[in-house]
Design goal:
- The strands form three sheets. Strands 4-5-8-7-9-13 form a six-stranded mixed beta sheet.
- The chain is an alpha+beta fold and 261 residues long.
- The longest helix has 15 residues.
- Helices cover 26% and strands 24% of the residues.
- It has eight helices and 14 strands.
- It has one domain: CNF1/YfiH-like putative cysteine hydrolases.
């Protein structure tokens, strides 16, 4: 099996959130087994094979699998019928330097690739609007989740109706950062006590990215009870999910996607 399903806190009929598993891991290959990301150094044919296997298991067409070329921005792209009708070159251009997608289209899987950063899936079931975001520390500081909610509202979604679930990502204990990262969160106005601590032995700072994004979502109007935090750490479970902290940046990525029927 290439994927596992992520759940919201409440039943979400008509919407499925999935993330890929590494599968059979070869310790000599940082891209093994399933990797859908095509810009981190993997062989193009291996990536295509992974995408085709994913689409078969998820029950979607290959040209309805849509993912951006991420660069730790807060840029959000709306995927509409005009996007689907555009040429491949136009689509690629619209997906360049984008870190979140929003759509109201059925049968389309929008997704992001992560290797420790937080994948955030959002859905307003009443209005049929779904979204996905890639939130590393830079995107979190820039409040990418707030930008996503704003774009979802343009398609009719209301914050109090939005359900959120986060996929496998680096846990608080594993995410050691420099003081400049802590200062970036402080300067951006985050409440620091719930998201930052120092390791008593190493003296190094740690940031809880999941909690920081929860803060952003609640400030954007999403109800706390509608937010599901991840239960897996990508670094702790690097044989299950890809982790740049374990494998380096020249490695595969875990794909998290959301599909509306």
């Amino acid at each position: 099996m290439i994927l596992e399903e992520l759940k919201f806190n409440v039943e979400a009929k008509g919407v499925m959130v999935v993330e890929t598993l590494r599968g059979e891991v070869d310790c000599n290959n940082n891209y093994s087994q399933w990797n859908l990301c095509d810009y981190t150094g993997d062989d193009a044919l291996r990536v295509l094979d992974s995408r085709m296997a994913f689409c078969q298991e998820a029950g979607i067409e290959l040209d309805h699998l849509i993912m951006p070329r991420q660069s730790h921005t807060t840029t959000v792209e709306i995927i509409d019928q005009d996007f689907l009708d555009a040429s491949i070159a136009e689509q690629d251009s619209r997906l360049e330097n984008v870190d979140a997608l929003v759509t109201a289209l059925p049968g389309v899987c929008i997704g992001v690739n992560t290797a420790d950063c937080v994948p955030i899936a959002l859905a307003d079931l009443e209005y049929g609007v779904t979204a996905i975001a890639h939130a590393g520390w830079r995107g979190t500081v820039g409040r990418i989740a707030k930008a996503v909610v704003k774009q979802m509202r343009k398609l009719g979604a209301t914050p109090e109706n939005i359900l959120v679930t986060m996929g496998a990502s680096i846990c608080n204990d594993c995410f050691e950062v420099g003081d400049e990262v802590v200062q970036a969160f402080e300067h951006a106005g985050f409440e620091m006590s719930p998201i930052a601590h120092r390791n008593a032995i190493t003296g190094k700072a740690h940031i809880n990215l999941q909690e920081a994004n929860r803060q952003v979502l609640i400030a954007a109007g999403v109800l706390d009870q509608n937010i599901t935090l991840p239960s897996h750490c990508s670094r702790c479970e690097s044989n299950r999910y890809f982790s740049a902290r374990r494998l380096g940046i020249d490695s595969g990525r875990t794909f998290t996607g959301i599909i509306k029927n």
